[in-house]
């Protein structure tokens, strides 16, 4: 009995997405966003450093700033850039006519954006402590105190990353659905604005733009709820998006 060869179509689609991203503004955005957060927080904490500002507070401040504001806005811009690589030159006719499952095209785009988000998370995890050490070296009289909470920082950033999956898919779905960049930008800006106004609300763990922030919660159950909704909801929405957009006409 002969076995059919494995289907590597999705992997080829994912590789094609990374090829498109080479030299694009998306990569620059993914570098600038975590650098901006780490640099800003290092400056703020250096100005007020001392006995009452431990390393743990500094590192968690980086994570909170990332989850609360910079990550949602970066996801909005990143998904628009990824979608415009197809919308701009009107590549959908070519892509949807290829002899491969259409849903794989959209699954690959989701994988590419999530990979870029993972890269941004790693950059922030490395850069935040590095700039903390640098600021301490420049002004030792305002040095951060206590042990460096490496493990806690990695755990928190990992939860933020996984819980942002739902937000990534929602923004990518809108960016791929509409050729104009205005609807997904309006969605992202509006969602972030509502998130700022709704901070502390009981509905926070269920609102996609606040889910990454709720993954920071000191309450373990609240953090796990945000993580579960963000990750599982992201997986379900990825499948739904692929099936929905695969039905679009080639024109």
UniProtKB/TrEMBL annotation:
Keyword Transmembrane helix among record annotations: yes
Membrane-spanning parts: 25-45, 65-85, 106-133, 153-174, 181-201, 221-246
Signal sequence interval, chain numbering: none
Keywords: Membrane, Transmembrane, Transmembrane helix
tRNA-binding keyword on record: no
Entry protein name: ABC transporter permease
Organism: Lysobacter korlensis
């Amino acid at each position: 009995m002969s076995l059919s060869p494995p289907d590597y179509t999705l992997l080829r689609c994912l590789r094609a997405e990374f090829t498109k991203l080479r030299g694009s503004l998306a990569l620059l955005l993914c570098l600038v966003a975590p650098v901006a957060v780490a640099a800003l927080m290092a400056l703020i904490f250096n100005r007020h450093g001392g006995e009452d500002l431990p390393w743990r507070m500094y590192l968690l401040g980086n994570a909170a700033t990332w989850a609360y504001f910079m990550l949602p806005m970066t996801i909005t811009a990143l998904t628009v850039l990824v979608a415009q690589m197809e919308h701009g030159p009107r590549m959908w006719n070519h892509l949807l006519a290829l002899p491969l499952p259409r849903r794989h095209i959209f699954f690959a785009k989701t994988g590419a954006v999530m990979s870029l988000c993972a890269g941004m998370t790693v950059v922030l995890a490395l850069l935040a402590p590095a700039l903390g050490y640098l600021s301490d070296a420049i002004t030792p009289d305002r040095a951060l105190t206590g042990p460096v909470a490496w493990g806690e920082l990695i755990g928190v950033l990992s939860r933020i990353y996984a819980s942002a999956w739902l937000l990534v898919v929602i923004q990518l779905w809108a960016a791929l659905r509409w050729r104009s960049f205005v609807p997904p930008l309006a969605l992202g800006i509006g969602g972030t604005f509502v998130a700022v106004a709704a901070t502390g609300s009981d509905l926070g763990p269920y609102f996609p733009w606040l889910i990454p922030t709720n993954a920071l919660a000191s309450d373990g159950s609240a953090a796990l709820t945000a993580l579960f909704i963000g990750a599982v909801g992201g997986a379900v929405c990825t499948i739904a998006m692929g099936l929905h957009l695969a039905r679009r006409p080639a024109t």
